[in-house]
Amino acid sequence: MKPRxxxxxxxxxxxxxxxxxxxxxxxxxKLTAGQLLNEVRENLQFIHPDQVADMLIQxxxxxxLIDVRSKAEFExxxxxxxxxxxxxxxxxEDYEYYINQDVKLNVFYSNGSTDAxxxxxxxxQLGYKNNYVLQGGLNYWVETIxxxxxxxxxxxxxxxxxxxxxxxxxxxxxxxGGDIAPAATELxxxxxxxxxxKNKKKKRVQGGC
Length: 209
What we know:
CATH class of one domain: Alpha Beta
Mean pLDDT: 78
CATH architecture of one domain: 3-Layer(aba) Sandwich
Distance between the termini: 33 Å
């Protein structure tokens, strides 16, 4: 996906997304629309599927995938280990423990990028810094990771190496099909909806930097 197309797909609906953000009566927004737009232009919120696939394969405990689609969509297919926080429930205090923390790297995803971007924009306006967006969503994930296109034999070595990684990742993550929901495997089984945790303070990483 070309950077220019990604930028256009984010900036064009930005005004509509900000206008659609539900009224927040419990917390003050810490970023203005202008500040948020500057961050959007830099595309700092995106994490490429390659990075997420590598973290999944390595079983990186710092990764937390958050599916912002409906419960019905989540139950049909989700990424390994993901939890379901539907977009309409994002500001619920029931899920603040998962959204506002600095232990795990949260990656929002939806079928495309729009809903996940909206989730990121809302949480970023609240000042939360540990949330990101899966670039291209599930559609791009299927295209790049689950069904990678083999490059020509004359392609640069880095393109061939990238394909080899994606092919291996696809095999490890149950790929090979052509649908948005590959054949389920033990690794593909969706996690249970996150339990409600109330009145708990944020946890911080002990030691390190």
